[in-house]
Amino acid sequence: MNFSFTPIGVIHSPYKEKFGIPRQPSLAPSARMTLELLAPYNHADTVRGLADFSHLWLQFVFHETAARGWRPLVRPPRLGGNDKVGVFASRATHRPNPLGLSLVELIGIDTGNGVILELAGADLLDGTPVLDIKPYIPFVESRPQARAGFIDGPPPRLSVCWSEKALADLAIHRIRHPELATLVEEILAQDPRPAYQDDPLRIYGVRLYQLDIRFRIAGDIVTTLEINAL
Amino acid sequence: MNFSFTPIGVIHSPYKEKFGIPRQPSLAPSARMTLELLAPYNHADTVRGLADFSHLWLQFVFHETAARGWRPLVRPPRLGGNDKVGVFASRATHRPNPLGLSLVELIGIDTGNGVILELAGADLLDGTPVLDIKPYIPFVESRPQARAGFIDGPPPRLSVCWSEKALADLAIHRIRHPELATLVEEILAQDPRPAYQDDPLRIYGVRLYQLDIRFRIAGDIVTTLEINAL
């Protein structure tokens, strides 16, 4: 038995690679993205009444990792990369069916030319194919008392510092991306390193928009070193 | 572009037809069902650690309505069947991609022979193909303040009465299904009629297990008339 789905829309996002994307939605609220509906779904009728909802579910495809298959056990970063849990007890991107599920905030809907949804707090890679949009129903789906195993709250945050070079670079690039400083801080504070890496000299790079953000992490301080156009 | 998915499991449920299923999960907590994982996913490893979570997301296929296609506008029962909203502003089963999303309670996991998850509060049709299981993450997904348009709380409930005949039938069938009385009351209290129907003489039937539950609705009172084995 086999079910086949066609994207109803595609995500346009500052996140150009998986590395650096916060591990849950809502952790980087400055990451604005858009969901562009594709024909024949891009008619104002399909989203009539949607603006009355503040939050939406997106069901989407992990298109970049889909080809890599799955394993029964995964190492969640929240367990320090040591303990293994079952793939269905995790939100790992490598799954038997590479389906994602994200709760996002709906900022606005533009139906002037096709349908574009403006979203905040989303954690989706640029180009992500979206299969469905559903309104969030708090009386059913908000369960603050749910027991959530090893995921008992937001992960600890690093402090973010900026080098002189990075501040100079920022001054240039924030003209085009006014939220860049906040977004970089939100993303780097999450500690994007793989769980088993802790080398204070190693320089990492994360792509945001068409920029490469270079940084280093020592202890619980992350330092933004420079921002280069790609 | 096209994505193809294979079920990882199948639902065994008392709900044998769409009519009568509460319109949101959690409204009929007595509806116990199981999710049987299919090979090669039915290994205890895939669910290691899952028992630490009280709630799960199921991403599944509306397999019975999938072939009927979709329309841009739908009439949600909560709006009395008069107003139309866009398909993406509703949780209607007829969608461009017939994907469902339900939050269910995890009661237990049996890994003695394959993997069977025991679930409560689910609203899935018997035989539903499940594509993915994800743990519920309250710090991200519980948003009690979310604005939810026309879905501002649970729907009003009808009062449930039992005819003498129904009570006699119940005495027979509750031997096999001890929760039957509660489940019937939970389901009928939701008013399963299509929104535009209001005929106090009309007798409806809803299938649960291998039983046909006959009932009538007048005003805000639903009367269970009889329970027949099918």
UniProtKB/TrEMBL annotation, chains A, B:
Residues 5-145 form the TsaA-like domain. Pfam families: TrmO_C (PF18389), TrmO_N (PF01980). One of its GO terms (biological process) is methylation. CDD domains: UPF0066. The keyword Aminoacyl-tRNA synthetase does not apply. One of its GO terms (molecular function) is tRNA (L-threonylcarbamoyladenosine(37)-C2) methyltransferase activity. Gene3D superfamilies: YaeB-like. Keywords: Methyltransferase, S-adenosyl-L-methionine, Transferase. InterPro entries: TrmO-like_N, TrmO_C, UPF0066_cons_site, YaeB-like, YaeB-like_sf, YaeB_N_sf. PANTHER family: TRNA (ADENINE(37)-N6)-METHYLTRANSFERASE. Belongs to the tRNA methyltransferase O family. This is tRNA (N6-threonylcarbamoyladenosine(37)-N6)-methyltransferase TrmO. It comes from Craterilacuibacter sinensis. The gene is tsaA.
